[in-house]
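Re: weekly structure request thread

Next one in the queue (256 aa):
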Amino acid sequence: MTDVIVSGAADASIIVWNMDTAERLHVLKGHTRGILDLAVDPSTYDGNGATADRAQEIILFSAGSDREIRRWQISLKKAEQLEPENPLLVHETSVYALLFDGDGDLWTASADGTVKCLLRFQNFQPDSTFQHGDYVRAVVVEEIGGYVVTAGRSEDVKVWDRGSGDLIHVFDGHYEEVSGLIMMRQRCVSVGIDGTIRLWGLNPKDLETAKAKVGKDHGMLEAVDGTSSNTWQGDKSKLGGLTEEEERELDELMQE
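Done, posted below.
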């Protein structure tokens, strides 16, 4: 499939663009309020620029401030909504974030204060709910240790045990809303509207150290690959050893 860019906007529209020619291929309508996030189903896309099936199609999930999650089947020649009369309605209000994990299950974060895991084999119905509190803007999954990380208006970065749903730790360091999270191996990177990007260690040793530092220095990593900076504000060399994909994700996070 030719490379495409998919954009969502406050006017509730989703547009599919030809990346090479900038031609507008499709305009998708279905949401009644602004689009807040988009996610491509990994079962239809391998992440390296190739679709996973012979039909050269992808399945796109979209979320908006109308609380609906809608699904779209997109190819170069056509695009259509799947089950337009039955959007996924799993939250009480705006859905800020969509994330597929390594198992292909869908994670959602909402202004209703919760994060939910929607199981693929149950047709994306909720299986687990994590009560973060306040508006939740972001969620990531740390696959190695089995953690879920949530963040939002509360300024905290919360770490949960994926299996039990127990709250493992609360990282406190941002002094304004946290607007985004990404995972880099067993490190979580958070960005806030306080203008800072902060790193949090999620391996067992880092978490134990962070718990011991509560009330002292927020449990942020004191050293990242040999540096002594607690708050990173622009020099990617301080992160050290990032893959090309991780650098791209970090750049995207900074621009949000």
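Helices lie at 204-212, 244-255. The two ends are 27 Å apart (CA to CA).
Next request, please.
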